[in-house]
Amino acid sequence: MVEKEDFFIPSNAVSPIPESEYLKINALIDTFNAVSRIVYQSLYIIDYNKQNFLYVSDNPLFLCGHTTQEILEMGYLFYTQNVPEAEQQMLTELNVAGFNFFEKLSSQEKIKCTMSYDFHILTGKKKTLINHKLTPILLTSEGKIWLAACIVSLSARSTPGNIILRIIDQSDFYEYSLKSHKWKENKGITLNDREKDILTLSAQGYTMNEISNELNLSLDTVKQSKRQLFSNLDVKNITEALSFATNYKLL
Question: Which residue ranges form the domains of the chain, and what is each CATH number?
Answer without folding.
Answer: 4-186 (3.30.450.20), 193-247 (1.10.10.10)
